[in-house]
Amino acid sequence: MRWLSLLVFLAISLGGGLLIGANNTPDDWYRHLDKPWFNPPNWVFAPAWTVLYVLIAVAGWRVFQAGNRRAMVPWVLQMALNFLWSPLFFSAHALLPALVVILGLLAAILAFLARTGPRDAIAFWCFVPYAVWVSYATLLNAAIWRLNG
Predict the structure, then answer these.
(1) Which of 8, 45, 104, 114 has its CA 20 to 30 A from that of 134?
(2) What three-state secondary structure class fits 86?
(3) Any idea of the CA torsion for 90, 53, 63, 77, to the nearest 10 degrees?
(4) How many structural domains are present in the chain?
(5) Domain containing 45 — which CATH number?
(6) pTM of the shown model
(7) What is the domain extent for residue 130?
(8) What pLDDT does residue 3 have?
(9) In the prediction, which pLDDT does 22 show?
(10) What φ, ψ does residue 78 adopt, rounded to 5°?
Protein backbone atom coordinates (compact mmCIF):
# COMPACT_ATOMS: atom_id res chain seq x y z
CA MET A 1 0.00 0.00 0.00
CA ARG A 2 2.86 2.37 0.81
CA TRP A 3 4.38 2.08 -2.66
CA LEU A 4 0.98 2.29 -4.31
CA SER A 5 0.45 5.68 -2.69
CA LEU A 6 3.82 6.82 -4.10
CA LEU A 7 2.61 5.81 -7.56
CA VAL A 8 -0.54 7.86 -7.00
CA PHE A 9 1.51 10.94 -6.08
CA LEU A 10 3.75 10.41 -9.11
CA ALA A 11 0.69 10.03 -11.35
CA ILE A 12 -0.84 13.24 -10.00
CA SER A 13 2.35 15.24 -10.28
CA LEU A 14 3.95 13.86 -13.45
CA GLY A 15 0.70 12.95 -15.17
CA GLY A 16 -0.95 16.25 -14.42
CA GLY A 17 2.17 18.18 -15.38
CA LEU A 18 2.52 16.27 -18.65
CA LEU A 19 -1.16 16.67 -19.52
CA ILE A 20 -1.27 20.38 -18.66
CA GLY A 21 2.10 21.04 -20.30
CA ALA A 22 1.23 19.19 -23.51
CA ASN A 23 -2.01 21.12 -23.91
CA ASN A 24 -0.60 24.57 -23.06
CA THR A 25 2.61 25.04 -25.01
CA PRO A 26 4.36 28.20 -26.16
CA ASP A 27 2.81 29.40 -29.42
CA ASP A 28 3.37 32.28 -31.87
CA TRP A 29 2.02 34.72 -29.29
CA TYR A 30 4.70 33.65 -26.80
CA ARG A 31 7.45 33.62 -29.43
CA HIS A 32 6.67 37.23 -30.32
CA LEU A 33 6.61 38.56 -26.77
CA ASP A 34 9.41 40.78 -25.58
CA LYS A 35 11.38 38.76 -23.04
CA PRO A 36 14.05 39.71 -20.54
CA TRP A 37 17.69 38.86 -21.05
CA PHE A 38 17.44 36.04 -18.48
CA ASN A 39 14.73 34.12 -20.35
CA PRO A 40 15.98 30.53 -20.73
CA PRO A 41 15.82 28.58 -23.98
CA ASN A 42 12.61 26.58 -24.41
CA TRP A 43 14.38 23.20 -24.23
CA VAL A 44 15.21 23.80 -20.53
CA PHE A 45 11.60 23.60 -19.35
CA ALA A 46 10.74 19.94 -20.06
CA PRO A 47 13.73 18.37 -18.26
CA ALA A 48 13.52 20.87 -15.38
CA TRP A 49 9.82 20.23 -14.81
CA THR A 50 10.23 16.46 -15.10
CA VAL A 51 12.74 16.45 -12.24
CA LEU A 52 10.70 18.95 -10.23
CA TYR A 53 7.47 16.95 -10.60
CA VAL A 54 9.20 13.81 -9.31
CA LEU A 55 10.53 15.76 -6.31
CA ILE A 56 7.09 17.33 -5.72
CA ALA A 57 5.51 13.85 -5.74
CA VAL A 58 8.08 12.40 -3.33
CA ALA A 59 7.62 15.33 -0.93
CA GLY A 60 3.83 15.03 -1.04
CA TRP A 61 3.99 11.28 -0.56
CA ARG A 62 6.27 11.61 2.45
CA VAL A 63 4.04 14.10 4.26
CA PHE A 64 0.99 12.00 3.38
CA GLN A 65 2.66 8.88 4.80
CA ALA A 66 3.60 10.78 7.96
CA GLY A 67 0.04 12.06 8.36
CA ASN A 68 1.22 15.67 8.29
CA ARG A 69 -2.11 17.29 7.38
CA ARG A 70 -0.71 20.77 8.00
CA ALA A 71 1.75 20.23 5.14
CA MET A 72 -0.75 18.45 2.86
CA VAL A 73 -2.94 21.56 2.61
CA PRO A 74 -0.24 23.71 0.95
CA TRP A 75 0.88 20.68 -1.10
CA VAL A 76 -2.61 20.34 -2.61
CA LEU A 77 -2.90 24.10 -3.06
CA GLN A 78 0.45 24.40 -4.81
CA MET A 79 -0.48 21.54 -7.13
CA ALA A 80 -3.75 23.26 -8.11
CA LEU A 81 -2.02 26.60 -8.68
CA ASN A 82 0.80 24.90 -10.57
CA PHE A 83 -1.71 23.29 -12.93
CA LEU A 84 -3.61 26.58 -13.34
CA TRP A 85 -0.62 28.71 -14.32
CA SER A 86 0.19 27.24 -17.76
CA PRO A 87 -3.35 27.53 -19.17
CA LEU A 88 -3.55 31.12 -17.93
CA PHE A 89 -0.18 32.14 -19.30
CA PHE A 90 0.20 30.12 -22.51
CA SER A 91 -3.40 29.54 -23.61
CA ALA A 92 -5.35 32.50 -22.22
CA HIS A 93 -2.38 34.88 -22.70
CA ALA A 94 -3.30 36.41 -19.36
CA LEU A 95 0.03 37.71 -18.08
CA LEU A 96 -1.20 39.56 -15.00
CA PRO A 97 -3.59 36.82 -13.77
CA ALA A 98 -0.79 34.29 -14.34
CA LEU A 99 1.50 36.49 -12.24
CA VAL A 100 -1.07 36.54 -9.42
CA VAL A 101 -1.37 32.75 -9.60
CA ILE A 102 2.38 32.18 -9.56
CA LEU A 103 2.73 34.48 -6.55
CA GLY A 104 0.12 32.33 -4.79
CA LEU A 105 2.01 29.23 -5.91
CA LEU A 106 5.21 30.58 -4.42
CA ALA A 107 3.40 31.36 -1.16
CA ALA A 108 2.00 27.80 -1.03
CA ILE A 109 5.48 26.36 -1.65
CA LEU A 110 6.93 28.49 1.16
CA ALA A 111 4.10 27.37 3.46
CA PHE A 112 4.89 23.75 2.61
CA LEU A 113 8.55 24.35 3.41
CA ALA A 114 7.67 25.97 6.73
CA ARG A 115 5.44 23.05 7.67
CA THR A 116 7.88 20.30 6.67
CA GLY A 117 11.25 21.72 7.68
CA PRO A 118 11.01 20.79 11.37
CA ARG A 119 9.40 17.40 10.69
CA ASP A 120 10.78 15.95 7.45
CA ALA A 121 14.12 17.09 6.05
CA ILE A 122 13.76 14.96 2.90
CA ALA A 123 10.37 16.45 1.97
CA PHE A 124 11.75 19.90 2.77
CA TRP A 125 14.82 19.48 0.55
CA CYS A 126 12.74 17.97 -2.25
CA PHE A 127 10.85 21.30 -2.36
CA VAL A 128 13.87 23.61 -2.21
CA PRO A 129 14.73 23.31 -5.95
CA TYR A 130 11.04 23.83 -6.71
CA ALA A 131 11.00 27.00 -4.59
CA VAL A 132 14.09 28.28 -6.41
CA TRP A 133 12.63 27.47 -9.84
CA VAL A 134 9.25 29.05 -9.08
CA SER A 135 10.98 32.13 -7.65
CA TYR A 136 12.84 32.44 -10.94
CA ALA A 137 9.65 31.77 -12.93
CA THR A 138 7.83 34.44 -10.91
CA LEU A 139 10.52 36.97 -11.78
CA LEU A 140 10.34 35.90 -15.42
CA ASN A 141 6.53 36.18 -15.48
CA ALA A 142 6.73 39.63 -13.88
CA ALA A 143 9.36 40.80 -16.38
CA ILE A 144 7.36 39.54 -19.36
CA TRP A 145 4.23 41.25 -18.02
CA ARG A 146 6.16 44.49 -17.53
CA LEU A 147 7.70 44.35 -21.00
CA ASN A 148 4.42 43.48 -22.74
CA GLY A 149 1.62 44.71 -20.46
Answers:
(1) 8
(2) helix
(3) 0
(4) 1
(5) 1.20.1260.100
(6) 0.94
(7) 2-148
(8) 86
(9) 78
(10) -65, -35
